[in-house]
Amino acid sequence: MNLDFNQIVPYIPFILEGIVATLKFVSISIIVGFILGTLLAICKITKVPLLKWIADAYTSIFRGTPLILQLMIIYFAVPQLTGLDITAFVSAVLAFGLNSAAYVSEIIRAGIMAVDKGQTEAAEALGVPYKSMMLNIILPQAFKNILPALMNEFITLTKESAIVSTIGYLDLMRRAQIVGADIYRNFEPLLFAGLIYWVMVFILTKIGGLVERRMRQSD
């Protein structure tokens, strides 16, 4: 096998900088997806038909089209229509955040529906406002039930982040491709990038397991 990992040694610092770039936009995307997903989930269980229809339509669109297509539309098509200059970073955050929100909304909705209806009935009987009931009673219980599913969504988001390399964002994947083009060897830098992705996902999985155990112990 024609392998020589010594050639990528000088480029290791350059590739490692991609970890920060990747985690930066993924972290913001997760926050955007979580906040928007929570709002969409509440809209889906509301008694207002219009809000429910909007939330369902949003989920259908973003779950029914490829993430890379959404990324391309935001980065290439939106500037064409609006004249706005959208950077690769902003495009990545918007595409991943909006896409994640559709999946997170379904996860949270399922978690809310799994909470005992007696909790809602008791809160309504005591005259607890809907907003306070959701924030202090229903959502905390729902989050405990859906934490594994949320962590799985965040892990998937981290792995799929590699597609931002298609718009030139200098994430981990893009830097590995640049190194491969520079030394005319692709296997070594790509394998090194793959190892880093695996380590990041492994750490996220461990953190998720730790948080889940802590929450169970607090019950």
TrEMBL record:
Entry keyword Transport: yes
Subcellular location: Cell membrane
Transmembrane spans: 20-43, 55-78, 84-104, 190-211
Record keywords: Amino-acid transport, Cell membrane, Membrane, Transmembrane, Transmembrane helix, Transport
Cellular component terms per the entry's GO annotation: ATP-binding cassette (ABC) transporter complex
PROSITE patterns tied to this protein: ABC_TM1 (PS50928)
Domain ABC transmembrane type-1: 19-208
Membrane-topology annotation of the record: Multi-pass membrane protein
GO molecular function: transmembrane transporter activity
InterPro entries named among the record's database cross-references: AA_ABC_transptr_permease_3TM, ArtM/GltK/GlnP/TcyL/YhdX-like, MetI-like, MetI-like_sf
GO BP terms in the entry: amino acid transport
Pfam families named in the record: BPD_transp_1 (PF00528)
Family under the similarity heading: Belongs to the binding-protein-dependent transport system permease family. HisMQ subfamily.
Protein name per the record: Amino acid ABC transporter permease
Species annotation: Oceanobacillus profundus
